[in-house]
Specification:
Rossmann fold, binds nicotinamide-adenine-dinucleotide, 182 residues
Length: 182
């Protein structure tokens, strides 16, 4: 299955790599060009047991790609994982601007039906906020897009992130079944 992951931080990088490891065709997109260039060369800046070797193997096998081209990433995946940062606002609430910016990219570039999987830590109701944000952008552009939003918050622990993520690969099977049923 073709999958795109937005955000190559702790959560996005581990998720993208584990999905490639189990056989998916994965593009991991980040707006940080320096981070992307390093990852394209196999340089992993976080320490997580097993991750650097897994990134290298999957880069070499061609199942894992890193890019800062949002159009490429939005068009690639049948499923798009959102794993961007959600820093705290001044009042302590999660700042959703990066999550919504992925929504903007989807509205700009996506034509085929798609499933968005929200992995970033966000408040209850963010799926509705994101849906309304994308629909407004589509409306302004005079276009329609069929899309679903799935909440799949990340609970990995740093230090055992690869094992935590791999233990949940049943997720990819469930998402796959749902996509095939369309
Ligand atoms: N790190 C953890 O242990 C952990 C655990 C559970 C949940 N989370 C949650 O997961 C989310 C991601 O956490 P993280 O630690 O990976 O964050 P991070 O800050 O390490 O990485 C986020 C990445 O998203 C990129 N980004 C921002 N806007 C983007 C866009 N529009 N398109 C593509 N990439 C974009 C940034 O450049 C950055 O590289 C947060 O909501 C966090 O709260 C983190």
């Amino acid at each position: 299955m073709k999958i795109s992951v937005f955000g190559s931080g702790y959560v996005g990088l581990v998720q993208a790599t584990v999905l490639a490891e189990v056989g998916h065709d994965v593009i991991c997109m980040d707006v940080d060009q320096n981070k992307v260039k390093l990852l394209q060369q196999g340089h992993v800046s976080i320490f997580e047991p097993g991750l650097a070797a897994m990134v290298k193997e999957n880069l070499e096998s061609g199942r894992l790609h890193f890019t800062f081209d949002e159009k490429l990433a939005v068009e690639h995946g049948e499923v798009l994982f959102i794993a961007v940062g959600t820093p705290s606002d001044e009042d302590g609430s999660a700042d959703l601007k990066y999550v919504l910016s992925v929504g903007d990219a989807v509205a700009r570039h996506r034509r085929d039906p798609v499933i968005l999987v929200e992995k970033s830590t966000v408040p209850v109701g963010t799926g509705d906020t994101l849906r309304a944000h994308i629909e407004k952008a589509l409306h302004l552009a005079g276009r329609h897009l069929e899309f679903d939003i799935v909440s799949n918050p990340e609970f990995l622990k740093e230090g055992s992130a690869v094992a935590d993520c791999a233990a949940r690969t049943a997720l990819s099977s469930a998402v796959s079944a749902r996509t095939c049923a369309r």
